[in-house]
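Annotated sample (chain length 263).
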Amino acid sequence: MESRIRTVAYVTLPALALALSLAGCAKDPVQQLSDPAVRARIVETLASEPAMRQELVDRLVGAPATRAEVIDRVLKDETSAGDLVQRILAADRGKALVVSKVTADAGGAKSFIKMLMLTGVMGTVITQKQADAYGLGDAYAYGNRKRTMTDLKKIGAVIDTWSRTHEGHYPECYDFADLSTCLARRLPAKSLDGLPQRDAWGGPIQYRSDREGNEYTLLSYATDGRWDGLGKVGPTDGFDCDIVFSNAGFIQWPGSIRREDVP
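Output written by the structure step:
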């Protein structure tokens, strides 16, 4: 391992020196790198040469022999995996690379699709029935539920923060409606900017309070898109059971997910 690192260092240092020479004649390379414009030119130079680019990749994520271990560690972390997938799919080039790799390997395709499902990224792409047909129903349901619970909790945090400056009362909206209909008008402008308006299945997240503003409910209709009447309180089993967040906590949630595991 030490010899590999020394070898990479010997090869990379001349490449870095070449890049630095393009940026100017400062005596201290570190000072040069502190300049964003200079740093951008250096990065571009290193990234434009295939050999230099490969050296940088090896230094960042290890040589090919150990790279799989690094990737496995990233994918085992749901948050990191979800962020990674979102970044890949956000770029056209990333989508093309994913498609080419997935279509070339049936086993890899199923593994990749499962990873997407577990992070809730698949969302509205398919239905629960289709996921069941692929043998990935549990992964699809888990990812969508976990993502929706996370989103409800984030919205709830905004509502709870508002209530602390309003004597513990919550925004008053007497009938279930999507967030933009009543709640957004009760909260300060842009309070909900950047927060999801729909659950992982594509259905609008619902909000309602009692008439005194002492209690509120955030609701996802889950897989079937229909209100189940809040007939069950606590952990549930069915994929169609609503997910309900109220007064800073879940009062109805999927039994396969622990409330304390929701970020």
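Annotation: Confidence is low (pLDDT under 50) at residues 1-13, 18-26.
Annotation: The chain has two domains: 1-69, 146-261.
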